Amino acid sequence: MEVPPEETPSTHTTRASKPFCLNNLATPIYKIITKKVTTTYQEVADIFVATLDKDTLEESKDKTLRRRVYDVINVLIAADLLEKNNKQIHLTNRTPIVKPQEVIAPPNPGREEALRKKQLELAEKIKMLIYYKYLIERNRLHMRPQVNIQFPSIVIGYRDISRGTIFRSLDGHELKIKSVAPPLFFSPIDIFRRLKISKEEFARQLRQFPMFAPYESIVMASL
């Protein structure tokens, strides 16, 4: 069975192992051009090659490196950082290359009204949270009665039940109500409002949630 050779650091190609890749050459070449302002391909290549160690730079590698320098210059021209005029290249003084387009939102007359509606809906949900929190804290000090209402629940009331009837099954699973007067339905928040929580106590409970601070005025105004 042939065992594959172990990987060594030399088998991985990284930017550090390729000092003459386009990414590593871009910065020093651009610095050379910024100092010269106006120059040529050959002059930039000559200056860059002159900064390298001649003993380690073979003739074949010198030609490859010069082509790399030309490639970097072409990329900078395509990126609109340089301009080319015949054989001369110079800075454009335009950075960054791509400017984000300004986005203008179309007019929306109902936007403020829709936002206000969302704020009021959020205020109602915040009130529900505060009421639940207050009710939980209050009930910790009270014994739970044998007959109570579990939330969420549907609470129905009648202004006049004298001419109607109420029937409840023995197992408590069925309730029939007959009435001439129309029923009145109450939401949990209607029940909570009967807790007689003061505005000062409500504000104290609300301020325990710093995230709701921007909506405090809206919530308190709706009490």
UniProtKB/TrEMBL annotation:
PANTHER family: TRANSCRIPTION FACTOR DP (PTHR12548:SF9)
Record SMART domains: E2F_TDP
Domain E2F/DP family winged-helix DNA-binding residue range list: 17-93
Family: Belongs to the E2F/DP family.
Protein name: E2F/DP family winged-helix DNA-binding domain-containing protein
Predominant location: nucleus
Any GO MF annotation of the entry: DNA binding
Organism for this UniProt entry: Trichomonas vaginalis (strain ATCC PRA-98 / G3)
Pfam family, one: WHD_E2F_TDP
Subcellular location: Nucleus
Lineage top rank: taxon: Eukaryota
UniProt record, GO biological process: regulation of cell cycle; regulation of transcription by RNA polymerase II
Keywords: DNA-binding, Nucleus, Transcription, Transcription regulation
Single GO cellular component term: transcription regulator complex
